[in-house]
Amino acid sequence: MTRLYILPTLLALATTFGAHAADPALDQTIADVGHRWATIYYQTPDKQKDAAYDELITQVQQLAHDHPKDAEPIVWQAIVLSSAAKIEGGLSALHKAKEARELLVSAEAIDPTVMNGSIYASLGSLYAKVPGWPLGFGDKKQAKVYFEKALAIDPHSIDTNYFYADYLADTGDYAKSVEYLQRALAAPPRPGREDADAGRRQEVQALLDTVKKKAAS
Questions:
Q1: Considering Cα of 116, then 120, then 123, then 124, what sign does the dihedral take?
Q2: pLDDT digits (tens, 9 = 90+) for 114-128
Q3: Sign, CA torsion 77/80/83/84
Q4: What integer pLDDT is reported at residue 90 of this predicted model?
Q5: What angle do CA 148, 153, 158 make, to 5 degrees?
Q6: In this structure, are residues 7 and 165 in contact, taking their beta carbons and an 8 Å threshold?
Q7: DSSP the chain
Q8: Which CATH number fits domain 24-155: 3.30.460.10, 1.20.140.10, 1.20.1510.10, 1.25.40.10?
Q9: pLDDT tens digits, residue range 46-76?
Q10: What is the spatial distance between Cα 70 and Cα 111, in angstroms, rounded to a whole number?
Q11: Rounded to whole angstroms, what are the CA distances from 110 to 40, 68, 72, 149, 193?
């Protein structure tokens, strides 16, 4: 079965939780989703991830349904779907990726800057990793456009810099990839996102080591 490699744009693209000062209950629920995502993505064994993601998908679907005018639950629904697609692979993964894209576009119509540009970073990652026509919607040029939009909103985001660096490495621009990986490592900590930050920094360092080897060869 063909496995699609889709980065879990999901997570951690918010700098902090607490975007809904008028709704602390929603803030707490979104924070719980973020922590659960980080636990699944960074700590749960691969064989157990499918079931864990299915449970989380159900939770965020309900959350988005209950708050249709809030962009953040919709973005998290897309993020979790993207992560599940990475583990699942095959045509079912492509279906999840397409659904994630649709959700991100709908969230963009509500608030394009929500979660510090995570909509565009997530779209960039999807367009960079999903196969192109006729199987999927992947498009490297469009991915770059989205990454640039995300960086314009938050140039210091650990996630956006990491995703863009990964894209640059895939396109063979190793020197520039190293630059953005170093930016990711220098990103400021996100209060309440310590678990996600720790996992992401490990990914950044691992990719940096790989890219430096490729650049030297």
A1: negative
A2: 999 999 999 999 999
A3: negative
A4: 79
A5: 80
A6: no
A7: ----------STT-SSS---TT-HHHHHHHHHHHHHHHHHHHHS-HHHHHHHHHHHHHHHHHHHHH-TT-HHHHHHHHHHHHHHHHHH-HHHHHHHHHHHHHHHHHHHHH-TTHHHHHHHHHHHHHHHHS--TTT----HHHHHHHHHHHHHH-TT-HHHHHHHHHHHHHTT-HHHHHHHHHHHHTPPP-TT-HHHHHHHHHHHHHHHHHHHHHHH-
A8: 1.25.40.10
A9: 999 999 999 999 999 999 999 999 999 999 9
A10: 8
A11: 28, 9, 9, 16, 24
What is the torsional sign of CA 164, 190, 98, 146? negative
Separation of alpha carbons 193 and 99, rounded Å: 26
Amino acid occupying residue 149: K
Q: Would you kindly state where each structural domain of the chain is located, as residue ranges?
A: 24-155
Amino acid in position 86: K
What are the structure tokens assigned to 63, written together?
């959350």
Can you tell me which residue has the tokens 């959350």? 63
